[in-house]
Write a sequence for this structure.
């Protein structure tokens, strides 16, 4: 019984860390225009829209976050192998991983922008200086939280994988959850504020991203400021739910009928999320209605 | 009917880069054998240099492959490179002294088959597919072997799985604090997989230039070497880890400055706190 | 995710000769393994092939919209095929590997599958959440007129100038199935290699089973990830970019991917087995 209570406590802590990590991850990637919305930032100068948006194209979010987390975890593991205190080791590992992230961010921005010479897109040094540091700060939160939760899984809950392997698994999952949830909100809602609300961006409008802010010219900090209000927290909820429910069903129900308990609970939770999803879908269809009259003849 | 986006125009031809990459990686991997001959681990840093040369070659291979639109992101090429490379590399470590050459051969075999599967069975019909996936598998295997040498001092299966337990008097079980036992191989996997795809991913566009991309590859290689060298403090004596760290840091700083200079050369303009230029007119 | 815009020429046609070569290659590798190492290693190879095929087949179900999905221009999840599948599959592998340290094969594999399915269910639900409550856009498919599961019409919910957006219910179900197959496949590969290494490494390295356990877990884990990624990327090459789920016309390309995945997993598995049998 004590074991289960301890496990539930750790699970709750891990879930909270995961939620923070997801929110920081999404905000970081939006400030850097990483992931899929990057294609529009890259496209804009080619369509004649020179901009001051940070364009750090380091792979997609899943592989990039896979690297930051696995690097933080690997370094933390090494420091612990050198008999360093676990907390200190995780912090040091995260700091070094953030250093690598920052270097990758600068080389990506400078490289992509230099290749756009034909279209006259300049490299802005002030963007390099101010945005990189802000993404590094957010990345540090994401990396530190995720490496810590991996450490807790291994040390407190007894998962057999060593720390770097757990970092690999959860780093890629973090990137996948964050990019899936957060990308549309930044890509459609923020980059294309000049388009109609409540509809997708017409393909013909690709590249026509918003480049001016309330005052002056928009930079990526304005984007982070905007997406931190919904896209970021939603990504946090997404990753937090994934990690928390995965652990929760294992800790509480694994001992019921030799592992089948956790499976049944897992299936039930999938069904619950299916129902929620269906509710959201129907609510959207009812509330917003069709864009055009249904075509009777075709169907 | 494949649309080729850009041809490799000018610069060093790909074959030359490939041959140089293979030779340099093999020589560096074998130079690390001085560790065994001199009975120290001072020469582990040659593993890091093998990583750098393999990555430079690999980034150019990715450029050749991804110039044909392969329909999915550039990063996936890095993933398949290391997914096949890790398997080839671990089998190769079983061959003792001939391990680097074995990695080359096994990498070629695995890569040719994977290339055939994607080009013919999956019907991708991309001329460079088979050769590129073959090269990438070897790049993956060499890079991982280089990281293994850098972090453990050797490229045999025993040195990867059996740890020295003498660091600061740590009394941990010797199999756990090792390259494979501690899963540092997972870190090496992603360090390499991102470093090999990043140069092309970061430099692609109409203004792509070869020297800038290769400089970026060297920069990524030295950066990876630097952090891997820090991890190696856990597995090799502090002296040799310090040598690797310093070489990695110096190499990184030099290539980073060079890369920034080349980007400044290639960029339309290099502005500090200036508004969007008025170019809409033309 | 990349600015290289040209569409590859790969069509949906089958290449019969290559398919036969692929199958023959598969049989040769299986035969070679039977010759070299019958028994446990051979069973492991079969398990790895099954796992690899499950991964390759499962990736086809995952609704991926790539870059256009981030702009609400195409339905699906806004990220790359291979990496989204990896996210789901590895989350499943996490659960499966945990269960494998206590339970048997069947329970672990099912646990892994449910873990992957749960990850995809939450992710897909949050995608629709953002689309509907954050952006005011209802879900609509671009490839079909009527959702085959719910019977909802799709065409008139598609906003002007786009190919659809969000995740219609059929894509949600596809995502969950993809996660289940990916998680189960990754877990099978892991458990097969783990059991093989646990049995063979002690004699090879002259140590007890408890001592080599970290080596066995790490090697099996990294190989499972490696084989998973190879299969996921090969399947991504097959899909070429985006797919909506099992109702998408591109889904019909799965036989090619199954042959390719089987042969590729057999090859990688064989090499991974040679490490301990040679």
């Amino acid at each position: 019984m004590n074991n289960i209570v301890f496990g539930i406590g750790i699970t709750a802590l891990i879930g909270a860390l995961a939620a923070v990590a997801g929110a920081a991850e999404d905000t970081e990637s939006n400030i850097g225009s990483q992931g899929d919305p990057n294609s529009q930032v890259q496209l804009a100068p080619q369509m004649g829209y020179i901009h001051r948006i940070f364009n750090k194209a380091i792979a997609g979010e899943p592989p990039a976050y896979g690297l930051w987390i696995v690097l933080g975890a690997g370094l933390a593991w090494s420091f612990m192998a050198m008999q360093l205190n676990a907390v200190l080791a995780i912090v040091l590992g995260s700091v070094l991983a953030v250093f690598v992230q920052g270097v990758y961010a600068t080389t990506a921005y400078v490289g992509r922008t230099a290749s756009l010479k034909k279209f006259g897109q300049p490299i802005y040094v002030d963007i390099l200086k101010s945005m990189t540091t802000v993404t590094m700060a957010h990345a540090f939160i994401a990396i530190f939280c995720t490496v810590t939760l991996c450490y807790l899984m291994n040390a407190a809950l007894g998962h057999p994988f060593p720390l770097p392997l757990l970092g690999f698994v959860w780093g890629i999952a973090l990137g996948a959850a964050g990019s899936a949830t957060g990308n549309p909100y930044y890509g459609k809602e923020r980059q294309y504020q000049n388009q109609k609300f409540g509809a997708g961006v017409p393909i013909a409008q690709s590249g026509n991203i918003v480049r001016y802010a309330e005052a002056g010219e928009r930079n990526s900090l304005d984007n982070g400021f905007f997406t931190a209000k919904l896209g970021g927290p939603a990504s946090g909820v997404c990753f937090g739910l994934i990690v928390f429910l995965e652990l929760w069903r294992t800790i509480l129900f694994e001992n019921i009928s030799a592992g089948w308990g956790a499976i049944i609970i897992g299936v039930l939770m999938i069904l619950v999320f299916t129902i929620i999803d269906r509710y959201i879908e129907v609510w959207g269809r009812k509330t917003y209605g069709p864009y055009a009259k249904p075509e009777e003849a075709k169907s | 009917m494949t649309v080729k986006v850009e041809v490799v125009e000018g610069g060093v031809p790909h074959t030359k880069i490939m041959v140089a990459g293979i030779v340099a990686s093999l020589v560096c991997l074998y130079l690390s054998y001085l560790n065994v001959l001199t009975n120290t681990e001072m020469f582990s840093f040659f593993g890091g240099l093998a990583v750098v040369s393999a990555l430079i070659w690999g980034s150019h291979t990715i450029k050749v492959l991804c110039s044909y639109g392969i329909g999915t992101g550039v990063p996936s090429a890095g993933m398949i490179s290391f997914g096949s490379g890790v398997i080839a590399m671990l089998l190769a470590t079983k061959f003792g002294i001939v391990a680097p050459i074995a990695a080359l051969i096994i990498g070629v075999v695995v890569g040719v088959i994977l290339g055939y599967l994607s080009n013919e069975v999956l019907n991708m019909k991309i001329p460079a597919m088979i050769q590129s996936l073959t090269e990438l598998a070897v790049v993956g295997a060499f890079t991982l072997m280089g990281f293994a040498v850098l972090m453990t001092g050797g490229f045999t299966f025993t040195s990867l799985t059996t740890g020295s337990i003498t660091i600061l008097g740590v009394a941990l079980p010797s199999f756990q604090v090792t390259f494979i036992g501690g899963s540092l191989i997972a870190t090496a996997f992603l360090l390499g997989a991102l470093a090999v795809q990043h140069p092309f991913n970061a430099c692609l566009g109409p203004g792509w230039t070869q020297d800038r991309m290769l400089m970026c590859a060297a920069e990524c290689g030295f950066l990876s070497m630097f952090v891997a060298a820090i991890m190696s403090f856990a597995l090799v004596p502090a002296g040799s880890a310090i040598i690797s760290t310093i070489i990695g840091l110096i190499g990184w700083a030099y290539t980073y400055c060079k890369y920034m200079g080349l980007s400044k050369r290639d960029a339309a303009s290099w502005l500090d706190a200036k508004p969007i230029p008025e170019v809409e007119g033309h | 995710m990349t600015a290289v815009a040209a569409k590859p020429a790969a069509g949906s046609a089958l290449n019969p000769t290559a398919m036969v070569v692929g199958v023959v290659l598969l049989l040769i590798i299986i035969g070679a393994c039977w010759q070299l190492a019958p028994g446990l290693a051979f069973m492991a190879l079969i398990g790895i092939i099954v796992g690899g095929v499950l991964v390759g087949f499962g990736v086809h179900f995952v609704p991926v919209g790539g870059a256009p999905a981030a702009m609400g221009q195409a339905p699906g999840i806004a990220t790359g095929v291979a990496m989204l599948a990896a996210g789901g599959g590895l989350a499943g592998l996490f659960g499966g590997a945990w269960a494998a340290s206590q339970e048997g094969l069947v329970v672990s594999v099912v646990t892994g599958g449910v873990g992957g399915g749960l990850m995809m269910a939450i992710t897909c639900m949050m995608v629709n959440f953002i689309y509907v409550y954050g952006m005011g856009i209802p879900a609509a498919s671009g490839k079909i007129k009527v959702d085959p599961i719910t019977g909802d019409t799709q065409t008139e919910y598609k906003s002007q100038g786009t190919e659809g957006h969000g995740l219609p219910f059929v894509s949600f179900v596809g995502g969950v199935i993809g996660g289940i197959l990916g998680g189960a496949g990754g877990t099978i590969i892991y458990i097969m290699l783990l059991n093989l290494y646990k049995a063979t490494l002690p004699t090879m390295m002259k140590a007890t089973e408890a001592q080599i356990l970290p080596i066995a877990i790490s090697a099996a884990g990294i190989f499972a990830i490696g084989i998973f990624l190879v299969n996921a990327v090969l399947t991504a090459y097959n899909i070429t970019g985006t797919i909506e789920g099992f109702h998408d016309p591109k889904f019909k390309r799965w036989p090619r991917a199954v042959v390719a995945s089987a042969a590729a997993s057999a090859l990688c598995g064989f090499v991974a087995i040679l490490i301990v049998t040679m």
Summary: Strands of chain A lie at 123-124. DSSP finds nine helices and one strand in chain A. Chain A has a mean pLDDT of 90. The CA atoms of residues 94 and 144 of chain A lie 6 Å apart.
